[in-house]
Specification:
By secondary structure, the protein is an alpha/beta fold. The protein has six helices and 25 strands. The longest helix has 24 residues.
Length: 399
């Protein structure tokens, strides 16, 4: 027994010395040290990834790949190799992440990290940047993220998140980027009050309900809500968003008129297709937006000459009537218009000489209207084969 106890004491001394050596190598706060150990145990490299090779806890964790320290605390944690195309990580996000109280940035590169986001993320009061994109994160977005008053960027895109977007997130005062696209989020779009918000990307979800008239701040520059089930009018919602440089509201169930003011926004691509917008389209001035897509709606009335300056114009599958304005013909023949899709409407004519040659760079489709086609033009296959609309639908036309 005496020999055994001597060996036990010797082993204890060796163990103590090893801890002292590790402590000498690392000035990291013990809480952060233990948190990193827990995080490491819950994640592993996918085949071909070598990210965790440097995570040797007998050395200073502040020298680990993706770990950045200030003094004895971890301030940034970027998990996985950030190089494009690298394999990434698998496993779960350990709740110990909440122990890294000084953390201001937390990212996980694309990979196969699964499970729910730990509710302990709400303890990271200094967190400014949270990006866990292109993984397999499931469950709901923790409502506790609404306690992160310093949060500026929230990117949880391309995951399998369900449930509603917590309204508490919309109230965060410093948010500038919210990217939650390509998930399975449901419920309504919360009101966003941050005067710093410039990017809101919620496309490809299952969001519904209508947008609050004061739900989006005037600071917004990028807005994508496409491929949802959002309803109601947008005229009051969009009215004050004068800084928008990109807007995509396509493939929803928006109703009412398209506000004329939106055609004056400094945007390069206006995508309002596949909704239930109705009434006439009346821009306030000559439209300078290169691409405008209003197809597959319930728009009616004449086509405004103010749209003739658009390079790529999609007005197909609506209820437009009357003749195509002469200004469109002039720009078609000069090659200024690249795409003009007018098929599947109730248009009665276009004053174009049948013998004139339309530039090869131009795609014009007039198929299935209330006119005899003056020129034969190649139309997209999905336009169908019927050249003109049946006379019974045209005289008199009733919407």
């Amino acid at each position: 027994m005496k020999h055994f106890s001597t060996n036990s004491r010797a082993y204890g001394v060796v163990l103590l010395l090893s801890h002292m050596i590790a402590a000498a190598h690392s000035m990291l706060h013990p809480v952060d040290f233990l948190a990193l150990q827990s995080i490491r145990k819950s994640l592993s490299d996918l085949r071909g990834s070598n990210y965790f090779a440097s995570w040797d806890f007998t050395s200073d964790p502040c020298n680990f790949a993706g770990v950045y320290c200030d003094g004895d605390r971890v301030i940034a944690l970027n998990l996985g190799d950030p190089r494009a195309g690298s394999p990434g990580l698998t496993g779960r996000v350990d709740p110990a992440i909440g122990k890294l109280s000084a953390l201001s940035e937390f990212t996980i590169v694309p990979g196969r990290v699964f499970g729910q986001l730990p509710h302990t993320l709400s303890q990271l009061k200094n967190l400014r940047f949270l990006a866990i994109s292109r993984n397999f994160i499931s469950g709901e977005i923790p409502a506790g993220l609404g306690q992160l008053r310093a949060l500026q960027t929230l990117d949880l895109s391309f995951n399998q998140l369900t449930g509603a977007i917590p309204f508490s997130i919309g109230a965060l005062p410093s948010l500038s980027n919210v990217i939650l696209c390509h998930n399975r989020l449901a419920g309504s779009v919360p009101r966003f009050t941050s005067r710093a918000l410039t990017r809101l990307d919620l496309k490809h979800n299952d969001l519904s309900g209508s947008l609050s008239p004061a739900g989006l701040p005037p600071s917004l520059q990028y807005l994508s809500l496409s491929w949802n089930r959002i309803t109601g009018p947008v005229d009051r919602v969009l009215y004050g968003l004068n800084r928008l440089s990109y807007v995509d509201l396509s493939s929803n169930r928006f109703t009412g008129c398209i506000p004329g003011k939106i055609f004056s926004f400094p945007i390069s691509n206006l995508q309002l297709q596949r909704n239930e917008f109705s009434g006439p389209v009346q821009p306030l001035e000559q439209v300078r937006i290169p691409t405008v897509d209003l197809s597959f709606n319930r728009l009616s009335g004449g086509i405004s000459p103010l749209l003739s300056t658009v390079q790529n114009l999609y007005l197909n599958n609506n209820r437009f009537t009357g003749e195509v304005p002469v200004s469109f013909v002039d720009r078609l023949l000069s090659g200024s218009i690249e795409i003009l899709y007018l098929q599947h409407n109730y248009l009665t004519g276009i004053r174009i000489n049948p013998r004139v040659e339309i530039p090869l760079s131009t795609s014009l489709c007039l198929q299935y209207n209330c006119m005899v086609l003056p020129v034969q033009t190649p139309c997209p296959l999905k336009a169908g084969r019927q050249k003109t609309r049946p006379t019974s639908q045209c005289i008199p036309w009733k919407g």
